[in-house]
Amino acid sequence: MFKHLFKLIWNKKKQNSLLIVEILLSFLVMFAVFSFGVNSYRNYAKPMGINYEHVWVITYNNSLKTTNSDSLTLFYEGLLRNIKALPQVQNASFTSGNVPFSNSHSTSAFMYQGKKIDRVNQFTVDENYTNTLGIKVIEGHWYNKQDAGSKTRVTIINNMLKEKLFGKASAIGKFINYYEDKNKIKIIGVINDIKFDGDYQSADISMYNRYDTSAYHWMSKILLKVSPDADASFESHLSKMLSNSLKNSNIEIEHLPNKLKSYNKITLVPLIILSIVAAFLIINVALGIFGVLWYNINKRRGEIGLRRAIGASGGSVSSQLVNEALIVATFSLIIGSFFAVQFPLLNVFDLPASVYLTALGLAILFIYFVVLACSLYPGKQAAAIYPAVALHEE
Amino acid sequence: MISLKNIEKVYRTTNIETLALNNISLNIAKGEFLSIMGPSGCGKSTLLNIMGLLDAPSKGQIEIAEQTTEKLSDKQLARFRNQKLGFIFQSYHLINDLQVLDNVELPLLYRDASARERRQLASEALEKVGLSNRMKHFPTQLSGGQRQRVAIARAIVGKPEIILADEPTGNLDSAMGNEIMEILINLNQKDSTTIVMVTHDENMAQKTHRLVRLFDGSQVL
Q1: ipTM value
Q2: Is B144 exposed, middle or buried (0-12, 13-18, 19+ CB in 10 A)?
Q3: With bands split at pLDDT 50, 70 and 90, how would you rate the model's confidence at A394?
Q4: Whether residue A26 sits in one domain with residue A69
Q5: Using CA atoms, how far apart are residues B81 and A142, in angstroms rounded to an integer?
Q6: Separation in Å, CA of B90 to nearest CA in chain A
Q7: Phi, psi for residue B168 in degrees, rounded to 5
Q8: Which domains does chain B have, with CATH numbers?
Q9: Which residue in A77, A164, B29, B163 has a CA-CA distance of 20 to 30 Å to A359?
Q10: Do the Cβ atoms of B54 and A391 come within 8 Å?
Q11: A7 contacts in B (CB within 8 Å)?
């Protein structure tokens, strides 16, 4: 029977071509939606890598008139001490502007054994960074006082960069260098991956450099880990204290959980838009399939009557129409899958192949489900056709 | 082979009740070739549909091939039609998107027959009606007479005991009509197939064993 239906559809391919194209387009849009969705979910399921609860971000600009590094160091170390002395503050850390969920990125290219690694995220941080954000050191150690006096330039990388460079081997003691700079940098530690761009984006290869005294000229963020009882009045008090210390500086205090919420919204907007477009398209396809089958039934009443006369039961007429719709969908899905598998093969958008393959499977299941749902009722109607009447009409 | 007892068929709409068949009793023996004649609207096709289990009578009993059919389910009726009955229609009812061979194979699709078996039986049936050279053609590439021969091949492919033909020569000129009639007579004589044929053509009816005339839903001869 399957071969018979296949032949019937193949011989009517011209009549079915528009429906095939419509299902194909829906499949491709659904593939895009599912790829986006699966990737976002996989990222969401991964740990954030930091504990952002009760972490505040202070943004300031260096308004001190002095350009002397020692004076600056003295001033900012004093400021940090004063902040840490507040009872609600559990930890505080100076950092470069690219704090989590800020959409601020700084990247550089590196070399390791003659191999260039592009777009490595660069962070300038201090010794309190891991404690403030709850980051785990998984190999080696985080910066300490001894590192400040080290003659060799040192750095700490994240696990993703470590695996990219060294696989499963240890990274500690290995040297890398900036692209077009032969000065070697020694790796002293590896920390866990951090999803800096929110819940739905993956972590990226990153490198954490220790600030030096010259960094106070341009450093503009302080991360604060506060106690759960730190409220608006404390925030107001903190703001006043900072304003008094940093005269003529614009002070802004933000909460990391709020920044994450905003950032997640921005990330989800394209997915929501794509889903709405897909929903309209699917409704269109569903109505199209429904309409075509309905039209087919009316046009093929004679054929349905004949099939009933020669031995088809109502159920087999119904399942024939449903199977025909599924075979038409299969034509579209075969063509669509050919295009879809190009994405993992050509590594488009640099997503893992498993994301595309999962999305492909989900899109196929979804299209079959829509086609099945839309063909059930017309199939039932076909089964109800009275053969004596249908045969007489022709 | 076919026994109809006091068959009545009433078509009802909200306002009108039409008596299509009135107290028809008929016995058709195995191997008989019976023709049914009557003016348009007298109930010939309705009677044929009831014999073919495509329609149910409002009253009366039917026994076909020693089987009472009243209590059969939709599936059982379908199986019965498939195995015992063959249908020929005035307008052929061929599927234009399928080749001649595939059209002839259709009844076998609803049986447990292998593809090879189906092919062989369909080829044999087409050979019987003299169309073995047209297997790969589509119905639209054939003349009316050829199409009706394909329809006959489809009716006999499952080797049914009874063939029900509803004006099989109605759309054909007399030469073509005679050809079709020859084939039906041959089937009746050689294979002892019971044939019930509705016709408007007196000459064709004269070639059958027995003629039943209907008028306004009642049997008059």
Answers
A1: 0.89
A2: middle
A3: low
A4: no
A5: 85
A6: 10
A7: -65, -20
A8: 31-57+72-219 (3.40.50.300)
A9: A164
A10: yes
A11: 98, 102
A188 and A291, same structural domain? no
Are A394 and B98 in contact (CB < 8 Å)? no
What percent of chain A lies above the pLDDT cut of 70? 99
What confidence score (pLDDT) does residue A284 get? 84
Cβ pair B102:A7 closer than 8 A: yes
Under DSSP, the state recorded for B141 is G
Q: Domain check: are A33 and A127 in the same one?
A: no
For A307, what's the count of Cα atoms within 13 Å in the CB-facing half-sphere?
A: 24
- Residues B138, B140, B143, B144, Cα dihedral to 10°: 110
Q: How far is A321 from chain B (nearest CA, A)?
A: 15
Q: Spell out where B38-192 has E strands.
A: 59-64, 67-68, 85-89, 162-166
Summarised one tens digit per residue, pLDDT across range A131-176 is 999 999 999 999 988 777 778 889 999 999 999 999 999 999 999 8
> Which of B91, B97, B109 lies nearest to residue A11, judging by beta carbons?
B97
Smallest Cα distance from B78 to chain A, Å: 4
Coil, strand or helix at A151: coil
Of A303, A314, A388, the CB nearest to B55: A388
* Residue from A89, A104, A135, A94 nearest A223 by CA: A94
Instruction: Say whether pLDDT at B137 is over 90.
Output: yes
Cβ under 8 Å to A: B residues 141-170: 154, 158
CB B156 within 8 A of CB B187: yes
What count of Cα atoms within 13 Å lies in the side-chain half-sphere of residue A193?
Answer: 19
Report how far residue A25's alpha carbon sits from residue A206's, in angstroms, rounded to the nearest whole number.
Answer: 39
Q: In the prediction, which pLDDT does A249 show?
A: 85
State the DSSP H helix or E strand holding residue A185, giving kind and residue range, or none if neither.
strand A184-191
- Count of domains observed in chain A: 2
- Chain A residues at the B interface, defined by Cβ less than 8 Å, are 1, 3-4, 7-8, 11-12, 302-303, 305-316, 386-388, 391-392, 394
Could you tell me the pLDDT band of residue B183, with boundaries at 50, 70 and 90?
confident
A288 has a pLDDT exceeding 60 = yes
Contact A96, A125 (CB under 8 A): yes
Contact at 8 Å (CB) between B46 and B20? yes
If asked whether residues A292 and A383 sit together in one domain, one would say yes
